[in-house]
Structure formats: C-alpha cells, structure tokens
Amino acid sequence: MFDIHPISAFDDNYIWAVKPENSDAVAVVDPGDAQPVLQYLQSRQLNLAAIFITHHHWDHTGGIDALLSYYPVPVYGPNNPKISQVSQPLTSGDQVNFGSGSFQVIEVPGHTLDHIAYFLDDSRPLLFCGDTLFAAGCGRLFEGSPQQMYSSLQKLLALPEQTQVYCTHEYTLANLAFALAAEPENSQLHKRLKDCQQLRQQGRPTLPTTIGLEKLTNPFLRCNVNALQQRVREHSNTEIRGEVETFALLRKWKDGFVT
Predict the structure, then answer these.
(1) What is the pLDDT of residues 87-115, one digit of tens each?
(2) Which of 26, 32, 30, 20 has its CA nearest to residue 71?
C-alpha cells in the first residue's frame, strides 16, 4: 500500500509523492519544479528514492536536475533523448518495482509521442497518467494523431473501474464545463460538478478520480454514446463515421471552447 500526496507546483500542476507505508522513501511523479518537492521532503524528514517521468514537457521534467543534485536516484521515463536525465528508459510492458509494488508501463502516445503511464495492478489499483487522461477530459494532441490518442485512452478505459487515476493538472472544473456542453442531459455530470466545486471551495484537489467515474462523465471516453455523437455532429455540422472521428471533432471542439 502507498500513501500518495499532491505537491502543488506552478498554477495547476500536481507532482505526486508516492510513499510506501511505514517507509521514509518517496518516489515523485513528473517533478516540473524541484523547490516544492524539496520543501515537502525536508518538512517531513523523507528521502527521495526515485523519479517517474511520463513525458518530456518542461512542466513535468524541469525539476529533475536540481533534485538529482540533492538525491542521486534512478530516473524512470520514456526512451527520449529530450529527457537526458532518464537512467532507466522504459517501453510498453516494462515493470518498475518500488516499495512492495510493481508498476506496469503502458505506452499512451497522443499528447506527445513518447508518453507513458504507470499502472499498479493491486487490491487498490493506481494509475499515474500524466497528461493523457484528465478528470473529465484528456490532453491536447501536440504530437500524436486522434487515432493514437483514442487508442491510448481505450487502453486506460480497459483498466479496472476502481483504479485511482492520478493525472498532473487541476483542470477538472474547466473540463466539466465542456463536458456539460457536450452532454447536457448527463445527470452524473451535474452531480460531479457540484461535488468538485465544493472540493475546490475547500481548497482541496479534485483528484484522484477513478476509471469508473470517468466512464460515466468523461466525454472523451464516451464517443460510442449516440447522444454525444449527435451533439458533436450538430456542433461540427459534419457527418460522423465512427468513434475515432467523433473523438477528433470533440477534441477540436474542446480546443476552441471558452468557459
């Protein structure tokens, strides 16, 4: 079992601190900024034991060098020369052992071509998915194609419904506003919006989410739903042939959506 703590960075990033129970060793996921990580470790008298990276964007990697200057630890991440600090390059099907857990590496290209996720198949399944799957949303397509991103999301959709999903941005309220535009009749979305508004008013994260909740409320995982396809068809004024085309038009709609 792990204790997982969000370390806030920048405007809306979360650097996840992953600590095995009864241990002072911590792994951090996507440390874009070293300073809040160092403050977290020092204030709790913890030691950094590993760094997990999901993709090469600066807000996920910018703190690596400074952390390594204090803690010479292994850096796990995609095999991409843009992340020169990675000492343990990973590909699909690899395993990362940390604490008593073994994290499975899943390749999820779309947001970037090098993007990977870390999945722990346990009694309490965990997923660290970077910028691929968000609460009620998904990442922008900076490098990959709609087909790649849709296929990557389908891999995550197939994980157990109780899987706790830790993404790296607090985008939930904005994502829910768009989701309601895409599925205004979805009662689960209205309930989730109220719940998340209350969490944010209390200064609390809206994360983690779960795969089960995303199935009910994330439009990018619901491209097979007839009512959603109809909304996308009406908005784009385009005939739709299949789920991938629905996803592509939905992502394009979201890119220009103003809350």
Answers:
(1) 999 999 999 999 999 999 999 999 999 99
(2) 26
Q: 19 has which bridge partners?
A: 3
3-state SS string for 92-141: CCCEEEECCEEEEEEECCCCCCCCEEEEECCCCCEEEEECCEECCEECCC
Are 169 and 13 a contacting pair, CB within 8 Å?
A: yes
Tokens of 99: 């604490």
The count of C-alpha atoms lying within 13 angstroms of the C-alpha of 61, restricted to the half-sphere facing its C-beta, is 18
pLDDT tens digits along 29-50: 999 999 999 999 999 999 999 9
Alpha-carbon distance 63 to 35, whole Å?
8
- Between CA 254 and CA 88 the distance in angstroms is 35
| Dihedral sign computed on CA atoms, order 152, 157, 163, 166 | positive
